[in-house]
Design goal:
The chain is an all-alpha fold. The radius of gyration is 23 Å and the shape is globular. Helix 9 (177-185) packs antiparallel against helix 10. The chain has helices spanning 2-35, 51-58, 62-93, 97-108, 113-124, 129-138, 149-159, 161-173, 177-185, 190-201, 203-218, 222-228, 235-243, 249-271, 276-279.
C-alpha cells in the first residue's frame, strides 16, 4: 500500500519535475557545456577544453571568488547575530505584535533592491546625508563612506535581512517551552539553556536561514556595483564582464560553474547535517 502511494505521488509530481527540469536544470547544463568550450566560442560544436579553468587560476580570478565567499560569510554571521534576538521575540514573546513586524519586514521587499541600495548611496556618498550632517556638526571636511568591503557587507546584510529572519523565527518556534522551563527548574543557567537547548533544537531554521543568505550573498552583484564601485570586484562582476564586455561566453560559463559548484557543495554539506523530515513535519 505504501509503495502504491509513493508511486502515485511520483506520477503526480512528474509534470512539475519536468517543468522544473526545463526551467532550472536545462540552463545549468548549457552553462556547464560552454564552460568546457575554447575561449571566444559561441556554440557547442567544439571538442571539450579545460582552457577556461586554466585562465581562472592564471589570471587571478580566485581573488574575486574568495572575496565573494568571504563577504557572504561575514554577512551571514552578522545577520544571525542581528536577527536571532528579534526572531526569538517574534517566536516566543511578542505575540500578535509579531504580525506587525512581519508585515513591516515584508513591505521592504515590495521596493526594488536597487532602489533601496541607491538610498544607501545617497546616505553615504560624499556630501550625502550622513557625511554632510557630520561636516555641518563638526566643521571638518569628510570623504564619502562608500567603496569598501565593510559597506558592501552592510548592503548585503540590509538586503537579505528577511531571508535570515523568517527561517530563524520558524526554527526557534520549534523549541518546546516546557523543555526550557524544565532545564531552568533543574538549575541550568541561561547560557547553558541557550547552548544546549535553544541552539541545537533551532538548528534547522538556523541552517536554512544561513544557506539562503549565504547563497544569495555569494552571487550578489548589485551591492558591489552600487556600494563598491570599481574599488571592490566580486565574482559576479567578473562573470558579467566575461559574458558582456568580454564577449567570452566559455570563460563566463566556467566562472559561473565554479561558483555554482562551490556554493552548491557547501549547501549540500549543510543540508546533510539537518533533519529535513523534522522541518517538513514528517517526523514520527
Amino acid at each position: 500500500m505504501e509503495r502504491i502511494e509513493e508511486r502515485q505521488g511520483l506520477l503526480s509530481a512528474l509534470p512539475v519535475l519536468i517543468l522544473l527540469g526545463a526551467i532550472f536544470l536545462a540552463p545549468l547544463l548549457v552553462v556547464a557545456g560552454f564552460a568546457f568550450m575554447p575561449p571566444k566560442v559561441f556554440h557547442l560544436a567544439h571538442l571539450p577544453s579545460f582552457e577556461n579553468f586554466r585562465i581562472f587560476f592564471d589570471q587571478g580570478y580566485h581573488a574575486p571568488l574568495l572575496r565573494s565567499l568571504g563577504m557572504a560569510g561575514a554577512a551571514t554571521v552578522l545577520l544571525f547575530v542581528l536577527c536571532y534576538p528579534l526572531a526569538y521575540g517574534m517566536a516566543k514573546i511578542f505575540g500578535r505584535f509579531s504580525l506587525a513586524i512581519t508585515l513591516a519586514v515584508v513591505a521592504t521587499l515590495f521596493v526594488s533592491e536597487n532602489i533601496r541600495l541607491f538610498g544607501w548611496v545617497l546616505t553615504l556618498m560624499k556630501g550625502g546625508m550622513l557625511p554632510g550632517h557630520l561636516e555641518a556638526w563638526t566643521g571638518l571636511e569628510m570623504d564619502g563612506l562608500l567603496y569598501n568591503l565593510p559597506i558592501i557587507v552592510l548592503g548585503l546584510t540590509y538586503a537579505y535581512f528577511p531571508f535570515m529572519l523568517f527561517p530563524l523565527v520558524q526554527g526557534i518556534s520549534m523549541v518546546p517551552d516546557d523543555l526550557r522551563l524544565a532545564a531552568s527548574d533543574l538549575g541550568a543557567s541561561r547560557l547553558r539553556i541557550f547552548l544546549e537547548i535553544d541552539l541545537p533544537l533551532a538548528m534547522p531554521g538556523i541552517v536554512v536561514g544561513s544557506l539562503l543568505t549565504f547563497v544569495l550573498a555569494a552571487g550578489a552583484m548589485a551591492e558591489s556595483k552600487l556600494l563598491g564601485g570599481q574599488a571592490v570586484i566580486v565574482m559576479a562582476d567578473e562573470i558579467e564582464t566575461a559574458f558582456t564586455y568580454g564577449q567570452n561566453w566559455p570563460l563566463g560559463s566556467a566562472l559561473a560553474l565554479i561558483l555554482i559548484l562551490i556554493v552548491g557543495g557547501l549547501a549540500i554539506l549543510a543540508l546533510s547535517k539537518i533533519d529535513l523530515d523534522g522541518i517538513m513535519g514528517r517526523r514520527s
